[in-house]
Every structure is written in structure tokens, then in C-alpha cells.
Amino acid sequence: MIALTQQLLDRIAAVDGHLQSYVTVMTDHAIASARRADAEIRAGRYRGPLHGMPIAVKDLCYTRGVRTMAGTKLLADFVPDFDATVVARLEAAGAVILGKLVLCEGAFGPYFPGLQVPVNPWDATRWSGVSSSGCGVATAAGLCFASVATDTGGSIRYPSAANGCVGLKPTYGRVSRYGTFALAASMDHIGPMTRTVEDVAIMFEAMAGPDPRDPSSLPGPVPSVRAELGRGITGLRVGFDRRYATENVDPDVAKAMDGVLAELTRHGATVVTVTLPDVSKVGGAWLDLCCVEALAAHAKTFPARASEYGPGFRAALESGQRVTPTALAAALKLRADMSASLERILNTVDCLVCPSMANSARVKEADPFDEETDESWSQQVRNDIHTQPFNFSGSPTLSVPCGFSADGLPLSVQFVGRRLSEAVLCRVGYAYEQATAWHLKHPTV
Amino acid sequence: MTRRDLLSRLASAAVLPIAAVPSGRGPASSGSQIEHPLHYASLAEVARLIVAREIK
Q: Measured between CB atoms, which of A51, A145, A440 is closest to B22?
């Protein structure tokens, strides 16, 4: 384990100066953890598949004694005195934490000026996704074997899609949020990013479960996901709304969706036509809710220290101040209606199929520190219709590589399931992954 | 990837190209080779090697 960890640390030292995915490398901590794992395993006290495994964590999750910045210089000196529950659980499973991964300021969209912006390992001119960009880059580039990410409006799915990773956004409340900075508490999800579906299942099993310190965490044991992977998908019903999944989507992505359906059908699933509700108003409602909740999450420092925020995130918080009670009520009603409609549809099928992102990774913004440009904003809105509805509903989603664009960038399919159906999603994703080989192609770094 | 592949890569700690993509319906269409050194092995693959005490 020590040699394995050292090899990853050496690789980080060799290539992350270019990729910029780690904000903090925890060398001493990682080596000490690896030594401990080595001794325990030698003594016959093997804890499971994460024992001795080098992984990394989005710098939104508290790490005891290690600076946790949440992507903002405002927290440049913040050193938590306890671990986030998710970090503690992974370490209890024996994982070796290599370090903390870069994110956008506050886990929203723009970066804090002067801080790192991760580089897409497939093409440095392309977007690396938001906000768990460091997770996507480090995982795709082999700078860790898995990472912990968060998703409030797409922040696991965008970097999974942009960098060619597998990403699981579990059911809301399945993974404790205790000790993780909030962006919008009612829509924040924590989940793993990996290079295979089996790996995402291993990580999820270690991360998930009730936590008395997070009142929103769901009760009850977490059933084994990994044990279900090999069951196949014969007889499963896969919902597909062609308009939703392929209109206003790049042709490469639309074609890839048909490829996914063909593969799932070949393995015994039945494709069922469904009609999703109108999602065109979700983006506006999501933004109102997110900005208002972010304002609450940052009440200790905003507006008191408003000038210390970056311009992009500050604008979001100011936008939260302008949301009227009427608009907030409308957004809450839309969320409730949308969630109920999605639940009704999801109850008729085993999962939905749609893109994780409407396009391959777009050309990155000239200024990733400011508010979005009109062009990037319109692309983002186009993407958000495939992500934000499932933050509203809290539904689990699994993103899996499903091809490459004509210019060699990863494409990604999203499987969406009923609440607590992570095992079904992983079964479907695993069957698809085993039938293809997209996940075996890696960036040349 | 076989255990032997992984072990040889760990021993050399170097990037070794794989001549062809394993069978499947995916990247074959891209027509390019891949590289699959240890750092690109899956977590599950590495865990199996740890259990077998073939990684330290």
C-alpha cells in the first residue's frame, strides 16, 4: 500500500502542475494511512476493497487538521477540527486520502479569481465541468482511484461527462451531508466518481447510510449494490422520452443514446416510451432556490464580507437577496409538482435513459472567474434540463461513458431511478459498461 | 486486465501501452490504441491484488 500510494503521489507531482486538480496534497497523512493499512492487512485485519486504496475528496468536505477552502479564499485559513461523515466513513473502510480536489467557489459555477481551474485531460481547451471539476480531472487522469464529489444542479454529472468518468448521485439523504459545506441544503447530494461502475458501487456502499448528525439522512441499512451487479438486466423496463433525450442535443449525443438503448435491448431490457413533464421552467426555479439557500448557507460571511467573494458567486448570492417571497413560493410549488410527476413516471419503469450532458465538453470560458458569458450560459441552460429536475426530485442518477464525439471527447449517458434504487441503476450501468469498452479508453497524460 | 499485467506494471512503475482495446463495441470505432498503466486500473482490480498481497 505504501508503494501504491507513493506511486500516485509521484504521479500527482509529475502531472498535476498542468492539470491543476488538487488544491491540497496530503502527503504525510496519505503515507501514514498507507502504512497503517499495510500493517493491518499483514496482520490479517482486512477491512474490504477500500483498504489501502488511494482516493481523493472534493475540498468541500471537512478534513480534520487539513485546510478546507470550499473553493474560496474567504476560507483560506479554515482548518476543521473534525472530519465530514463521508470522509470518516471512507477512512473507516481503510481508504487512503491523497488530498483535496479543486472546485468552483462555494460549489456553484464560477471559480474564485486567482485560484486553480482544473484542466480537462482529454483536451486542455475544453471545459472540465462544474463544480466537482477537480474530482473529474483527477479521477479521469489516474491521480486517484476514486473521488468524493457533490451535486446540487449537475456537479457530479457535468464533470463525469466532461472527463469520461462514472458518477453516482445517490438518492437525496442517502449519503450524510454532515461536515460538508452546503450550497443549497435541500438539493445537495454527495456521491462518488470513479472509472468503472463496480468501483462506484464499492465507494457508495462505504459512504452511504444513516447519520444522526444529519437530520436529512435516510434511515435504514443500505442494501448491497455490488452484489447485484452481475444479475443482468433481462426484463427490466427502461423509460425513454425521445424528445427530452435527443432534441436540442448534439447529434453525437443523440446518436449515442440510440446506441445505449440498442445495447440494453440486446441484453434483455425493454424500452418503454415515456413522456416527461415540461422541464423548461426548472432552470429558473432551481436558480431562485439555489441562490436563496446559498444565501442562508453563507449567512455568517455574506453580506458582511461580500467584497471578499469572487464576482461570480457574489452575484449569485446577491441574486438570492432579490428573490421575492412570491417567486420563492412559485419555485417551491414547481419543485413539488415536478418531483411528483417524475415519481409517477419512475414508478412505471426501472430507470430512465437520457444524456448526462447535451454535448461533449464545450470550449472553456475565456474568463472562468466571472459570471457566465451569454454563450456559456445558453449552453449551460441547455444542459441543465437533464440534471436539475433530478436535484428537485432527489432521484438517484448514474452517469456512464457511452462514446466519444467526432473530435475525441467523452460522451455520457445518465440513468435515473426511483428513490433508493441505486442497486438497479448500477445493474443497468454495469451491464452496459460490460457490453462496451468506452471506460477502458483513458486520456493520454 | 490480468493480474500479471497489473503486476508487471507495478513492478516497472511505468506506462505500458496495450496493443488493442479489449473486446467490446466501444472504442473500436475510434481506431486508436489505449494506454492502461496501473494508475488507470480500476479500484476493484487493485483491491483484488491487495487481497492477494501482490501489491504493497
A: A440
